[in-house]
Amino acid sequence: MRKIIFILLTLIFTVFTVKATHNRAGEITYRQLSAYTFEFTVTTLTYTLSAADRNELEITWGDNSSSIAPRVAINNNLPDYYRKNTYKTNHTFPGPGIYEIVMQDPNRNFGVLNIPNSVNVLFAIKTTMIVNPQLGTNNTPVLLNDPRDKAALGQVFIHNPAAFDPDGDSISYKLATCLRDGGKPIENYSLPRKVVKGDTLFVNPVTGDLVWNAPRDTGIFNIAMNIEEWRKGVKISNIVRDMQIEVHNSDNKPPLNPPLKPWCVEAGTTIKFNIKSTDPNNDNVNQFASGGPFEVSSPATFKLDSANSGKGYSTSLFTWKTNCNHVRKQPYIVVIKAEDINPQLRLTDTDNFTIMVLSPAPKNLKASGSNNSIILRWSKNSCTNASGYAIYRASSPTSLVIDSCVGGIPANSEYKKIGIIKSINDTSYVDNNQGTGLNLGVNYCYRIVATFVDGALSYPSDETCATLIPGTPALTSASVIKVDAANGEVFVSWIKPIKLDTIPALGPYEYRIYRTDNFSGNNYALILTRESIDLMDTTFTDAGLNTIKYPYSYKIELYNNTPGNRFMIGRAETASTMYPNLLPSDNQVTIQFAKSVPWVDKRYIIYRKNLLTEKFDSIGYTETEEFVNKGLANGQSVSYQVKAYGTRLLNGQTFKTLNWSHINSTIPLDTIKPCQPPFTISSSCDTNINIITWRNPNLLCANDIVKYNVYYKPGLNDKFILIATIDNAKDTVFNHNPGETLAGCYSVTAIDSFNNESRIINERCADICTGYALPNVFTPNDDQVNDKYISYNPNHYVKQVDMKIFNRWGKLVFRTSDPDINWDGRDKETKQYVSTGVYYYLCDVYEPKLAGIEVRNMTGFIHVYSEQGKPIAK
Q1: Helix (H, G, I), strand (E, B) or coil at 536
Q2: Helix (H, G, I), strand (E, B) or coil at 428
Q3: Across-strand partners of 369?
Q4: What is the largest CA-CA distance in the chain?
Q5: Residues 6+ apart with CB under 8 A from 768
Q6: What's the alpha-carbon Rg for the chain, to the nearest Å?
Q7: What 3 state SS string does 167-187 have?
Q8: Residue 15: is its pLDDT beyond 50?
Q9: Centroid of chain to Cα 528
Q10: Does 341 score more than 90 pLDDT?
Q11: SS3 11
Q12: First to last CA, the chain
């Protein structure tokens, strides 16, 4: 046994002499050069006392290719025997897709406590990227703070990568698992002992602070972080940073940073303040700052204030004169690190603060009304790098509270966006309600916001308001007072003209009333001519109508009817009746109030027909433009009528309005698709069965699921076909035999009692089960039993390998591409049988997978036995 152990140790030492343990930390970042070409940067931190040193590294691109990245920079002057290595190379991808970029290098440090047998585990880092020209140019975040700080037993440890995205994309963070060969998670990897995940070791998903509170064991630990990049809600890249934390037993206490507040400033503001860090042990303190403000044009500075620094404390001055080029949607994060200069162990305190830089508001907004539109004009925004403007409108003056840290208009305000201008030089806008015209008598108010390419918004402009010039006369009612198919009635009213200039219009007068049966107000027909002496007759009941039909619109013209001097006074107004537009869905109806009127409706009372009394009962009210009536029975007709209370402002006077709607009916029906059931795929390679298991979504989004559909496609780019319908809602497992390879993708949908079927949003794939394996014992002694070293290759799925076998001195004794191996025990050069002993192999297995051929790296030992350990005769 001792001999075997000695052989194993000797073999490990020999094979890895040139691959000595040295990797401590690293990550992969990139920047885009053209549609499919990117420049990649691999950054590693290694151990300077190790014999291993890489002038170049191999990178696999996730498109079945790899290349060599040369080292372009090296820094050997870091403390604690750290060396920083920078490697760069370019790669062009074949087309759009999701690619995993992997660098792997032997080997990790000996004795990493949370990685079993760490000395024999490859060090791997990975970045996942989406290549898609439709997403626009993308560069990953750059990580500005190197992971080389030490931790002390029982003391809080904090590390922040100080990630900065040059494109202004948002960044999130979370813990990850350290990786091994192929960029796969390390088996049996664990967090450090006595750590409760999410409690004592966690990553702040917003700021990126990795906090360990606090180490309970000394030793070496490796932790990984995911730095995720998001654009418009889509994750477009993921960097895995692998970092090493050395925990020491020390009496030293880390320095302390002061509390750091967030900043929200208008572009052009200078931020200037001191940061004083102190040390409880009275050690000297070094201060460091990193983050986005130091990476932009006109960058921030962080300078030592010698006059306010001394033994046990250090003060530095942070200064940043912001400008319009610094405006962006995402806040800047500044990481402040204080490091004590302690001869026993240097410790750090890391804190961060944010800076939000917003554009000034557009200035000098003015509004002027015409007959049917309002014209807005303003000055060009002072931040000329803005891309345009967003126009917001409210139906009355509002008291908007401006948040100094948020651009744009709050979503819960009365302001609604009505238009977008895509040029910073275009400083006027005509609001005609998208061509349908604005309502007379409404005091429309406006604010303007400057917009930027990355989605940033300026502070909103001051409010300005205007009204259209009211018509003559001004309408106040078009109310359905009787609903009938033949004898329906609509009540129309208006206001006697105020401040009528009687010099040119002495009277008598004439009202001319027009009606049309369409909502757009076309094809008006004259229905009444009424002479008036004093203009006091301001109402009209339009009878004999089919008021079940909708809509009716009215127009009233006023004429001076003096003989020989007949002319129309002012401009005619229009007003429509109101119609409850009904949108039925599952057990509910949404009621919208369709109308085109010159007054402002403030409050709506909703009435529903009582099936027992045949009368309409009030069921609720709303001050918005729609009402949702819930708790209805599907398949049962419901009818509604609405009463609207409003006001109209004319020449400083407020007139109240009251109008009834038509009646409308509908039937609630379940037209809502249930959500897709959560499901998983597991494969049984022995029985050639894929097992699809899902959950009934009744607990998630429905209450009437009756069956399921199971879909399958053999390849990633194929179309799904229906392979099974499960008619029992309680049956949530399906076994499928797609063929001997087990390859294929699946999706499951749920169907409710109204035959609404889930959308196929998610799919799960089962990959090919090759089952390829290599034995670890081999007896080439001519006894006709196990005389050849042969792989386990069921169904001969694997067609190619690259198998290399080494002896204890690192000499290559055998190599083949035959997937069955078929080694007879002979040395490839001498043609003699090898001696009894332990041999080490490296094997790249080219396995067929759904996405194409994938390479699986296999390593291990072969125990070769012969008679009494003697060489076998030829």
Answers
A1: coil
A2: strand
A3: 374
A4: 137
A5: 741, 742, 743, 797, 847, 848, 849, 850
A6: 38
A7: CCCEEEEEEECCECHHHCECC
A8: no
A9: 61
A10: yes
A11: helix
A12: 28
Q: What is the mean pLDDT of the chain?
A: 89
Cα separation values, 71 from 31, 56, 88, Å: 17, 5, 7
Contact assessment for residue 774 and residue 745, using Cβ atoms and an 8 Å cutoff: no
Structure tokens at 760: 């196929």
Residue at 491: amino acid letter: F
**DSSP-assigned letters across all residues of 273-307:** EEEEEE-TT---EEEEEEEGGGTSSS--EEEE-GG
The torsion angle over the Cα atoms of residues 598, 604, 610 and 616, rounded to 10 degrees, is: -50
pLDDT of residue 196: 61
Residues found in the chain:
874
Nearest partner of 386 among 324, 451, 440, judged by Cα: 451
**Most confidently modeled of 191-200, 370-379, 459-468, 692-701?**
459-468
H or E segment and range at residue 863: strand 852-864
- Alpha carbon distance 169, 396 (integer Å): 36
User: Residue 752: which of 677, 693, 666, 667 has the closest Cα?
Assistant: 677
DSSP codes joined into one string, 615-645:
SEEEEEEESSSEEEEESPPTT--EEEEEEEE
**What are the tokens at 530?**
């009424």
What percent of the chain lies above the pLDDT cut of 90?
61
Q: How many CB atoms lie within 10 A of CB 680?
A: 12
pLDDT in tens, 265-321: 999 999 999 999 999 999 999 999 999 999 999 999 999 999 999 999 999 999 999
51 burial (CB, 10 Å; 0-12 / 13-18 / 19+) is exposed
Strands (E), 496-623: 509-516, 525-532, 539-545, 553-562, 565-568, 573-576, 579-585, 588-594, 600-609, 616-622
Q: Is residue 12 within a helix (H) or strand (E), and if so which, with residue range?
A: helix 2-15
What was the pLDDT predicted at 468?
A: 81
CB 390 within 8 A of CB 417: yes
Give the separation between CA 140 and CA 228, rounded to whole angstroms: 9
Q: Which of 594, 576, 561 is nearest to 524 (CA)?
A: 576
pTM for this prediction:
0.62
CA-CA-CA-CA dihedral for 323, 325, 326, 327, to nearest 10: 100
* Edge-to-edge strands, sheet with 705-713: 721-726, 705-713, 744-752, 764-766
CA distances for 663 relative to 481, 599, 631, 659, angstroms: 11, 21, 20, 13
Please provide residue 3's backbone torsions phi and psi, each rounded to the nearest 5 degrees.
-65, -45
Confidence of residue 502 (pLDDT cuts 50, 70, 90): low
Using CA atoms, how far apart are residues 392 and 417, in angstroms rounded to an integer? Answer: 4
> Which candidate, 12, 14, 106, places its Cα nearest to that of 811?
14
**Matching residue, tokens 């920078």:** 86
The half-sphere exposure of 625 on its side-chain side, counting CA atoms within 13 A, is 7
Which runs of E-coded beta strand occur in 787-836? 789-790, 800-806, 812-816, 821-823
User: How many beta carbons lie within 10 A of that of residue 681, not counting itself?
Assistant: 19
What is the Cα–Cα distance from 827 to 837, expressed in whole angstroms? 13
Which two three-digit tokens encode residue 838? 């332990």
Query: Could you tell me the CA-to-CA distances from 136 to 127, 167, 233 in Å, in that order?
Result: 19, 10, 14
**E strand segments, 325-457:** 332-340, 348-358, 366-369, 374-377, 388-394, 416-421, 428-431, 443-451
d(CA 801, CA 858): 10
Burial class (CB in 10 A: 0-12, 13-18, 19+), 454: middle
Sign of CA dihedral 584, 588, 589, 590: negative
Structure tokens at 181: 């060969």
Residue whose structure tokens are 């109209």: 648
Confidence of residue 412 (pLDDT cuts 50, 70, 90): confident
Give me the phi and psi of 176, to 5 degrees please: -140, 180
List phi, psi (to 5°) of 308.
-115, 30
Secondary structure (3-state) at 308: helix
